[in-house]
Amino acid sequence: MFRYLTAGESHGPALVGILDGIPAHLRLSVEAIDETLGRRQGGYGRGARMKIEQDRVEFLAGLRGSETLGSPIAVVVRNRDYETPKVRALMDPIAGAGDPLTNPRPGHADYAGALKYRQRDLRNVLERASARETAMRVCLGAICAQFLATIGITTRSYVTRIGPVEAPELDDWDQADVEASDVRCPHADAARAMIAAIDEAKASGDTLGGQFAVRIDGVPAGVGSNRQPNQRLDGILAGAIVGMQTVKAVEIGLGASVAATPGSRAHDVFALEGENVVRASNRAGGIEGGMSNGEPIVVRVSVKPIPTLTKALPSVNLHQRTDAPATVVRSDVCVVPAAAIVGEAMVRLALMDPVLEKYGGDSMEETLDNVRRSRDAAGRLFARER
Ligand code: EPS
């Protein structure tokens, strides 16, 4: 069984992660992990915090001589903000203290978390709810990316919408154009309009949500299962993505628009190209019956505007029982470009268990042998009829 855990408060000393189930003898590039961490920190619309942080992974366990041992992997990403005396005084695990935050932000975890954990200081809720934690998900996802790449599975994303600005729909795109864009949108005109929309939101004390698409190439047919509901690959991916802070909807393939599409235009017909079975379209988004079908897996994700507005929304002071504007803390205007990187990470993390269930293996040699055997067997399946 593959599993992972993260721990860490946004302004605490560090984020911590554990990955359990990565086979032995996977050679890891630490530079590639740090590079992915840096991609999450970018994006137009981030706040001042990203100028403070410089996310870097440190390995504590599971790696020797750059190769995984098969033991649990433990990693740390330190919070540089914690080095500030004011932050340390607030968040020190032993001596940390400060005036309570009392005015919950609508749309944030503040209120529900206060009631759930019986916290009179909203800081004790928001510290863990903060999207700072996604740095560790991206770190763990970047390790998984290196495992998945050995099987030929790659994941990439681009931003399709920021607030009112929608980019034209792309089936495929040049990732270099995405990396070159401040909003991770390969369509230059749309990217310019997105930046203008973020500037406008910032000037009026507002925030913007949006959408991004994730595309996974190279997933062999048969990952995931129709045996039980919790084994369906679409459910596993959707659950992981909605498990991200700020995500409110996820669509696979045609997504919500399938409801209005007749059956004659909703599916991907089969045809022959020589002896090969091919599909003329990918409306299913690479998943049929809860299993990968060998086509690219395409997921679209909708992200809400973050709930910390500098022009604060109406709220209440929970201690004094008076009307009061929501707490304003330093924050971002738009996190959609960063969320796209987190989305890639969540997809990678979510694929690990079903991929390892299909192929197994305690070492990379064993896993790759199993992948080869499985591919050969799939190629031979209908051979005797020809
Ligand atoms: C966040 C608020 C901001 C963001 C933070 C997420 O942090 P701060 O309150 O310290 O300025 O910068 O995101 C990150 C720190 C990060 O690494 O992405 C929130 O409330 O969710």
CATH class: Alpha Beta
Low-confidence stretches: none
Strand content: 15-25%
Run of helices and strands: EEHHEEEEHHHHEEHHEHEEEEEEEEHH
The CATH topology is given as: Chorismate synthase, AroC fold
Got a strand count?
17
Ligand species: ligand EPS
Structural class of the secondary structure composition? alpha+beta
Cα-to-Cα separation, first versus last residue: 39 Å
Number of domains as seen in the coordinates: 1
Q: What Rg do the Cα atoms give?
A: 22 Å
Specify the CATH homologous superfamily. Answer: Chorismate synthase AroC
Offer a concise description of the structure.
The chain has helices at 30-41, 49-52, 85-91, 110-117, 123-129, 134-150, 175-179, 188-203, 233-242, 336-359, 364-380; strands at residues 3-7, 14-20, 58-61, 63-64, 67-68, 73-78, 154-162, 165-166, 210-217, 247-252, 270-273, 276-279, 287-288, 291-292, 297-303, 314-317, 322-325. The chain is of the alpha+beta class and 386 residues long.
Throw out a few tags for this protein.
single chain; 386 residues; alpha+beta; Chorismate synthase, AroC fold; 5-stranded antiparallel β-sheet; 4-stranded antiparallel β-sheet; 11 helices; 20% strand; binds ligand EPS
